[in-house]
Automatic annotation (TrEMBL):
Organism: Halorientalis regularis
Gene expressing this chain: queC
Swiss-Prot/TrEMBL cofactor(s): Zn(2+)
Protein name (Swiss-Prot/TrEMBL): 7-cyano-7-deazaguanine synthase
Ranges of Acidic residues composition bias in the record: 1-19
Chain positions covered by the region annotation Disordered: 1-23
Organism phylogeny: Archaea, Methanobacteriati, Methanobacteriota, Stenosarchaea group, Halobacteria
């Protein structure tokens, strides 16, 4: 079963006392949600093992740069970068297909956005679980949140619950890995507030689907990010070509 709330203090203390070497793999995209998930994992007592993948996404160079900066910032015990080409070869997403344009944000739409990469999270989580099992990690963290699963089917709580069952069925009998989606019921604003509290270096994160620099300010990812910072009353520290008011 996925975990979406921090453990109570007694549980956290017992886990820390009984095992001083708790490890977790965190899927790191280079964006603010996954960076916050890293700091959340650390706050819960895990040593962070970072996994970043380049799969042909439009801003993969910038995302990798941010992921590597984060690994350096936290002095991660281990970090892994994996190059995969199959999601780009499959296509059908504006993030990986040059013939599809990244659409402007449309918060009122009920359609699956063109930025959806078919079954991406299942692919990424499979790699993360392999990495976790190979390194005796107890958990895999993913930064998906409620505003993601309104448009992306592989960000829904039911998907993570089902994937936990896959992990349990498909790993060694003595392997126990929890799939943790700490923000799955949170808004982007909730995540920004938590990250600001934890001191996440948001200036070294990137969310834009279109451009390496400056961020466009008008794609879905930029809109959600800007809205979150605006709701918090804090200026987003990265550069934008446009900064619309999304509040």
């Amino acid at each position: 079963m996925t975990e979406d709330t921090p453990p109570d203090d007694s549980t956290a203390d017992a886990s820390t006392d009984s095992d001083d070497d708790r490890r977790a793999v965190i899927l790191v995209s280079g964006g603010m949600d996954s960076a916050t998930a890293v700091y959340e994992a650390i706050d819960r007592g895990y040593d962070p093992y970072l996994l970043h993948t380049s799969y042909g996404q439009e801003t993969e160079a910038k995302e990798r740069e941010c992921a590597e900066a984060l690994a350096t910032e936290i002095d991660a015990p281990d970090s892994l970068h994996v190059e995969t080409g199959h999601l780009a070869a499959i296509g059908a997403s504006s993030l990986t297909d040059d013939e599809m344009e990244v659409a402007d944000a449309d918060p009122d739409s009920d359609e699956i956005p063109t930025s959806y990469v078919p079954f991406r999270n299942a692919n990424l989580l499979s790699m993360a679980v392999s990495y976790a099992e190979a390194n005796d990690c107890e958990a895999v963290f993913i930064g998906a949140h409620s505003e993601d699963f309104s448009g992306y089917p592989d960000c829904r709580p039911a998907f993570f619950d089902a994937f936990q069952a896959v992990i349990d069925a498909g790993t060694k009998p003595d392997t126990e890995i929890d799939l943790v989606a700490p923000f799955v019921e949170w808004s982007k604003t909730d995540i920004a507030e938590r990250g600001l509290e934890l001191g996440v270096p948001y200036e070294s994160t990137w969310s834009c689907y279109r451009d390496d620099a400056p961020a466009c300010g008008t794609c879905d990812a930029c809109a959600f990010r800007l809205e979150a910072f605006q709701n918090c009353g804090v200026r987003d520290p990265i550069d934008y070509a446009e900064r619309p008011d999304y509040t």
